[in-house]
Amino acid sequence: MNTIGFLINPVAGMGGAVGLKGTDGMLAEAVRRGARPIAASRARETMELLKGAPFRYVTCSGPMGEDVLAAAGISDFSVVYRASPVTTAEDTRDACRAFVDERAEMILFCGGDGTARDLYDVVSDTIPLLGIPAGVKMYSAVFAVNPPAAAAILLSGATFPLHLRDAEVMDVDEEAYRAGELRARLYGYAKSPYLPGHVQGAKRVFEDQDEDRAKAGIGRFIAEVIRGTPEILYIIGPGSTTGAITRALGLEKTLLGFDAVQDGRLVASDLNEQGMLALLSGAARVRLVISIIGAQGSVLGRGTQQVSPRVLQKIGTGNVIVVATPHKLAETPLLFVDTGDRELDAAFGDHLSVVSGYHIAQRKKIG
Amino acid sequence: METKIFLCEEDMPRRWYNVLADLPTPLDPPLHPATGKPVGPDDLRVIFPMELIKQEMSPDRYIDIPGEVLDVLRLWRPSPLYRARRLEKALKTPARIYYKWEGVSPPGSHKPNTSVPQVYYNMKEGIERIATETGAGQWGSALAFATMLFGLQATIYMVRSSYAQKPYRKSMMQVWGAECIPSPSTKTNSGRAILEKSPDTPGSLGIAISEAVEDAATHDNTNYSLGSVLNHVCLHQSVIGLEAREQLASVEEYPDVVIGCVGGGSNFAGISFPFAGDKLTGKHPATDIIGVEPASCPTLTKGLFTYDYGDVAGLTPLLKMYTLGHDFVPPSIHAGGLRYHGDSPIVSRLVHDGVIRAMSYHQSEVFEAAQTFARTEGIIVAPETSHAVKSVIDEALKCRQSGEAKTILFNCSGHGNFDMSAYDAFYAKTLVDYEYPEQLIRESLSRVPKVG
Questions:
Q1: Local structure of B364: helix, strand or coil
Q2: What is the pTM of this model?
Q3: Measured between beta carbons, which residues in chain A are less than 8 angstroms from residue B200?
Q4: Chain A residues with beta carbon closer than 8 angstroms to that of B295
């Protein structure tokens, strides 16, 4: 990897410190409340660690990239996009298009969920995204845990090919969020680099940290369960981990939606709440298979609105199979369930058993 | 008020106790992997010396310990029995807790109780080299110690994840002159086959056993040696329980509860079989005997009681035992010695018959218990042993609630001085609590071989 697109959303995170829960459309108010830019200093922390690394950067003018690179002592970069004086989401997307034209192989950005979503609009899963966290909300899984971790991941790519995984991009409704309600939609799956074993410590490299192999193991296991229980209808949630299950069954799955499978056959695709209720009324036994979504350990309630409390009540919390790769679980100290119904949430208890490989599960705390 | 209860060397047991003699009906025989027929002595001669084959199948209640073996055992036996007064006090329990401390042996665990006689019998029959496997390294170092004493060579296949986690076990084997190889290796057909399929496998005892058996079967001067599971291993370990029973009797005690951790079953057999014998013969019918295993590899609590191979490649005889399936690769928990898909056929049978009960715990809770033990009794136990400690603490806390002053005996099978990376992980809160999704596995296809 040589060329990295580098972009800063200079206003990211400004709303958070002044209690605005996000900066989308609220910049003027944030500034009025005395908010100061934080993205530049977060990005600089990463870039100083990357000084001397054999990368070339394509970036944006001034506060959207150029200033931080220069301040970090990095000279091998070219400015390929001139930002407007007051930057907007459109600047992020336009800059990203310029990076694509310059054949960037990775996009390193500093911002929050909004920035990730804007970049994903342009590159989808064609160019990997890695976020330096600076936003107010970071429910997407493309972010490194902190600025130094972002540098460590990229440095590992200087000598070996980077490991890539599917990472959720989440779309959080900021209006609702300000009103005290978290409405997060699963927006898509970007590619994002990660360090296998990084979280678990160097001695534990023999855990199956390879995402693709772990997914294949989960897929093979649950596919065998589905074949072994032809009397049960399986509703399979969104994501690439659950996608491995349908792949093992030789079926096509909706990436962002809920599909139904029974006896190895696809019964329904991209179900909404009504569709699920209709299916449930005719089935004797039903199980729900879902993965952990986003960076915050969400099991239900973020990006799974189709599974309403009514649907979940019919399925029964005891019939929910949760799956996730070991790497995802290592990054997720606590799980949470927020179905919109407190009693239902409580029915999951204090711990969940999460299937993390072939014939293996991990016990995780619900926080 | 003694803290340590000793036996004189001259009171050391001169005979091993064979619990097979006290089973109401004989054990189901091991079956030949190719023919499915019961194996005879000749089938085993390729990898075992005759004397051990005889012991494996012996109906005799007692078997004499050879003098040369006793001379070596005397280096650390009889091992002390401790009264855990400080632990009792910390738990505010009326229970009296005793532990047999096997960490005093040179390799630091109960394992040389059987490596010494096994190597002795091989030496007697002219064998020059022993091939074996090791999980956490306790067995490997014990075998290296014994081969050094009797002038044999040793090749030890060490489960890869432990090889990385516990480098000092490998150093010990080197000091005692043994060769230690991470498994799966490229030295054997079974190792190469596994590596081809999954190059990053953490390895498992099942895989390492396949490698060692293959090594032994393909070299004339080489025999195989197993550190657990088999009847003759349980027989050799009986010295632990025999001594403990004497030591307790000297303070007019007999245990109400006997506890040990279980991987393949050898240290548990050692502490418990003499008491299981007393239970079977009606002398002490009410003793509560508990085998403790990891929740991530819950052979006795969630496995099937059926015939299965002892190794991954299917080279060993089929044993009737509790099993999670011979192709099950247990997750890389720190208690590497408990990562085994099967269990001793005798322990399995006693669990099946209700003479022994089994329970399981998660990794993080057993380290919590080990910390309590280290901060009261001082000894930092091996991760395997911490499973027994957790169960002891739970039983003692039950006594606090009920007010019963039970006598609890457990086998403190080894020290954890080479397991500090595991304790580090505990303090860094990075221990993963693996589970065995039993219901789902039962629903998926069964991989246990169909026999009979």
A1: helix
A2: 0.81
A3: 206, 208, 210, 213
A4: 363
